[in-house]
């Protein structure tokens, strides 16, 4: 029997509209029976998944990290296998899982059926795949419009970061984990579940999405230009060894600030401090390349 798949493609993703027809053709050629649904608002993806959960064998989501983040709560609730078609700008989750950006290859991986249980991050009731953060990254998210991402692609992240960086000011926060407490003056706190975020930067050099831990770094610089020598190390996740960076790991982490700060999960602002972060081990199954 042909597997029944719910295909959800974000037409507003960078490659969404042009990728939809190619994805349908590839998947049908591979033997999938497809139910196609689209929504103008990614926040409705969870409702669509729950509506079809008894009629399908898996969910295939085409889009970027924000689209996947919009679907993740329903994937947890239904425990349906997840297939990923990387059609966004950064595709950091696909990068973490080794899923190639070409649609035919991504479809082949889904058809091969190699299921891997992965961890999820959780903050204040919201799941995330890659990273949840506050500070500088939130300002980048707020400025990084759909038009900018569509025009500049992956370079949009670096260009937008440079625009907001020189205006950034440190803020005070208290971080608690492993029965320890730290008061920091920082421009960014990032808590990672996977390895990549922000267009290919690494949270920790050895992070994996099934290591059952969260990786936190706090970027404790006083002047915007101090981040410039850090940038190459941030691409490799080795910034954690620099004096200006505080790094720690744990299964549960709390962050407190004097006023409520917005928190970005996988590129979308979804909650505010105070925040409790947790790792949820082996939370869902994703179709990935064989090891």
From TrEMBL:
Keyword annotations: ATP-binding, Kinase, Lipid biosynthesis, Lipid metabolism, Magnesium, Metal-binding, Nucleotide-binding, Phospholipid biosynthesis, Phospholipid metabolism, Transferase
Molecular-function GO terms, alphabetical: ATP binding; kinase activity; metal ion binding
Family annotation (SMART domains): DAGKc
Domain of life: Bacteria
PROSITE patterns, per the entry: DAGK
InterPro entries on file: ATP-NAD_kinase_N, Diacylglycerol/lipid_kinase, Diacylglycerol_kinase_cat_dom, Lipid_Phosphate_FormReg, NAD/diacylglycerol_kinase_sf, YegS/DAGK_C
GO biological process, any: phospholipid biosynthetic process
Needed cofactors: Mg(2+)
Pfam family, any one: YegS_C
Any Gene Ontology CC annotation: plasma membrane
SUPFAM superfamilies (alphabetical): NAD kinase/diacylglycerol kinase-like (SSF111331)
Residue ranges of domain DAGKc in the record: 1-127
Family assignment from sequence similarity: Belongs to the diacylglycerol/lipid kinase family.
Protein name: Lipid kinase
Organism: Anabaena sphaerica FACHB-251
């Amino acid at each position: 029997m042909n597997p029944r798949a719910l295909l959800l493609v974000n037409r507003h993703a960078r490659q969404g509209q042009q990728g939809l027809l190619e994805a349908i053709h590839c998947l049908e050629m591979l033997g999938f029976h497809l139910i196609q649904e689209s929504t103008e608002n990614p926040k409705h993806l969870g409702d669509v998944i729950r509506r079809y959960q008894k009629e399908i064998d898996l969910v295939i989501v085409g889009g970027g990290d924000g689209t996947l983040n919009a679907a993740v709560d329903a994937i947890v609730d239904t425990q349906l296998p997840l297939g990923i078609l990387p059609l966004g700008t950064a595709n950091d989750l696909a990068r973490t899982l080794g899923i190639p950006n070409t649609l035919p290859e991504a479809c082949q991986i889904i058809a091969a059926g190699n299921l891997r249980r992965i961890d999820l991050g959780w903050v204040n009731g919201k799941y995330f795949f890659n990273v949840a953060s506050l500070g500088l990254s939130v300002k980048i998210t707020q400025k990084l419009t759909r038009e900018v991402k569509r025009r500049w692609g992956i370079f949009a992240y670096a260009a937008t970061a440079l625009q907001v960086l020189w205006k950034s000011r440190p803020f005070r926060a208290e971080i608690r984990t492993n029965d320890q407490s730290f008061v920091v003056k920082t421009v960014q706190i990032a808590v990672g579940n996977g390895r990549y975020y922000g267009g290919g930067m690494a949270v920790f050099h050895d992070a994996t999405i099934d290591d059952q831990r969260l990786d936190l770094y706090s970027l404790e610089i006083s002047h915007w230009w101090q981040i410039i020598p850090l940038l190459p190390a941030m691409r490799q996740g080795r910034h954690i060894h620099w004096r200006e960076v505080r790094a720690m790991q744990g299964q549960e982490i709390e962050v407190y600030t004097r006023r409520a700060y917005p928190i970005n999960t996988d590129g979308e602002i979804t909650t505010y401090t105070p925040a409790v972060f947790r790792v949820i081990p082996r939370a869902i199954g994703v179709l990935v390349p064989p090891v």
